[in-house]
Each structure stands twice: as structure tokens, then as C-alpha cells.
Amino acid sequence: KRAGVGICFGKNHPDNAANEVYGKSVNSYRAELQAVSIILQGTIKWLAKIWITLDNEAVVKDINAMITKGHKKKRRENKDIWIVIEGIIENRTSNGTLRVTWTKGHATQEQGILTAEEKKRNEEADWYADRGREEHTRNDVNTKAAQQRTQIAMLMQTMMLKVWARRLELINEEEQRIANEDNEHYELEQE
């Protein structure tokens, strides 16, 4: 399964990003959580308030539970990401510099997106997520091409070894033929 992460700070913002989703279990929850991790790590030195809007309600609920209740929940899934972001969330919560909200993804204004700006940013984030998903395809193509090059190199090396082995056989056969001819000449001279 392939998924991408799209991060949009605004039109043509230098921190907009597209990444592939990594990990064993690739799903929308992990994609959104990975996006949060990228944002929080990338803005760790920012003193300004960070307002993250996600279209995965479960991620928003889990992060907001941590913000409001101030405690970490035992996690079995996506532990690799939670370990990274829990401390950052705690620090931002204590400073009052983190807000996480939910917006309905792929929605119209009537269906839950509050503003035209929010709709536009969600669409841009989805565009970046599509680019991130394409990274998987590019990586798969590059990996397959590298594997094919390796197989070709191995076949060529095997062929060269066989040619070399056959060459040695021919040299030995020629040396044996010459030795046999020399023996025949020697025997004829002895008679």
C-alpha cells in the first residue's frame, strides 16, 4: 500500500513538503501522524504558535487528548513516531504554542470546511501528499532498475568466468597436444 504526506503552510511557502509514508503499516492515520512529526520537528525552534489542521479525526483526538489531559497513552502502533513527537507536544503544550484542529478532508464549505482558505490549504496538502505517494513509485522503479543492473552484472561476471575457465581448458588441451607431439617425435627419434 502506498501513501504520501502533504504539508502545506501556504501557497509557495518554502516549508511546504511532500514525503512518502514509511513503516510496516501504511494507512491514513500513520500518514497524518508522520506529517505532524515532520511539522513539529521542523518547527521545534519556532517560538510562534503552531496551528496544525488535519483531516484525520483520530489523530486530532489522540493529540488533543495528550494536550488537554497531559499524559501519554500506551501505544503499540506507530510507536516510532509517537516517541519522537510526545516530548515536543508536551513542550509546546506547556508554552501554549500548539493547537491541533480537524477539518473534513475533500469537503466543500457546506460539508465542514469553514473557510475558502482552509479548503485551499487542504487541497494543497492533498496535492503534496500525491507527490509523496509518487515517491514510492519512483523508489520502486529505481529499486527494480538497480536489481536488474545487479543481475546483469552477475550474469556478465558468470559469463566471463566461464569464458576464462574454457580458455584455461583450451590452453591445457593445447599444451597436452604439444606434449603428446613432442613425445611422439622423441619416440620416433629413439627408434
Commentary on this structure:
The protein is mainly alpha-helical and 191 residues long. Helices cover 63% and strands 9% of the residues. It is built from 4 helices and 4 strands, in the order ββαβααβα. It has a two-stranded antiparallel sheet. Helix 1 crosses helix 3 (79-95). The longest helix has 75 residues, at 116-190. The protein is rod-shaped and about 115 Å long. The model has no long low-confidence stretch (mean pLDDT 82).
List the helices and strands and how they pair.
Blueprint: E1 4-7, E2 17-20, H1 28-42, E3 50-54, H2 57-69, H3 79-95, E4 98-102, H4 116-190
Parallel strand pairs: 3-4
Antiparallel strand pairs: 1-2
Helix pairs in contact: 1-3
Could you give a quick summary of the protein structure above?
This protein is mostly helical. 63% of the residues lie in helices and 9% in strands.
% residues in beta strands: 5-15%
Low-confidence stretches: none
Rg, alpha carbons: 32 Å
Order of helices and strands: EEHEHHEH
How many helices? The count is 4
Quickly give the structural class. mainly alpha
Strand order of the largest sheet: 1-2
Give the integer mean of the pLDDT values. Answer: 82
Helix % is: 55-70%
Shape: rod-shaped
**Largest beta-sheet characterization:** 2 strands, antiparallel
N-to-C CA distance = 85 Å
Count of strand segments: 4
